[in-house]
Write a structure and sequence with these properties.
- The longest helix has 23 residues, at 170-192.
- Helix 1 packs antiparallel against helix 2 (170-192).
- The chain is elongated, with a radius of gyration of 24 Å.
- It has 193 residues and is α+β, with helices and mostly antiparallel strands.
- The chain is built from two helices and nine strands; from the N terminus they run αβββββββββα.
- It has two domains: 1-22 and 167-193; 24-163, Lipocalin.
């Protein structure tokens, strides 16, 4: 019984230590790249954008929202979306939430599927850098088939900012309180014996 109590206490402390090491950091996102294809007369355009989100160092996942503006000689639209990038597993997921035309000769938004999840680069993705704390830079170069013969080649640069501070770390406090109660119960049993 004594060994079991020791194992349980060690497990509880290990869980507390693991949770206390995970942290959330602010992230800023810069998007730049090119768009080209036969559907826009073989023209080449540019994509610019920005966003913000958080990095969870426990999972290595960056979650962010962004807006990008893809322009060519005949198209121009703002696309809003939410996305995640797994900096450990090296994968991504994005969902366009809105599209707003910005004066192009040809409409863009009918070709943008809204509320459909998929990888940021559905043709290829290349990752670089690190995302472990403040000052780190992590990159994703994503090549995507946008449909109708249009291809995008975009670079996402994630700059890790300041750590978010939680005023009351409730999960860690609960583990510490629970382990203290177990310890006090053990002392009480020992005194009765």
């Amino acid at each position: 019984m004594k060994k079991l109590n020791t194992v349980l206490a060690a497990t509880a402390l290990a869980l507390v230590a693991a949770q206390s090491q995970a942290a959330l950091f602010d992230v800023s996102v810069a998007i730049s790249g090119t768009t080209s294809g036969a559907a826009i007369g073989g023209a080449t355009g540019s994509t610019t954008g920005s966003g913000s989100g958080t990095l969870d160092t426990g999972t290595g996942v960056i979650s962010f929202s962004s807006v990008s503006n893809a322009t060519t000689p005949v198209t121009n639209a703002f696309v809003y979306g939410v996305a995640t990038v797994d900096t450990i597993g090296l994968s991504s997921s994005t969902t366009a939430t809105d599209c707003v035309e910005n004066g192009g000769l040809l409409p863009t938004c009918p070709n943008v599927p809204l509320n459909v999840s998929g990888p940021i680069g559905n043709l290829s993705e290349v990752y670089g850098g690190s995302a472990t704390g403040t000052g780190d830079i992590f990159t994703l170069v994503a090549v995507g088939d946008q449909g109708s013969g249009i291809t995008s080649n975009n670079s996402y640069t994630f700059t890790i900012g300041a750590e978010q501070v939680s005023e009351v770390p409730v999960p860690a406090a609960a583990w510490l309180f629970g382990s203290a109660i177990v310890g006090l119960a053990g002392i009480g049993r020992k005194r009765k014996a």
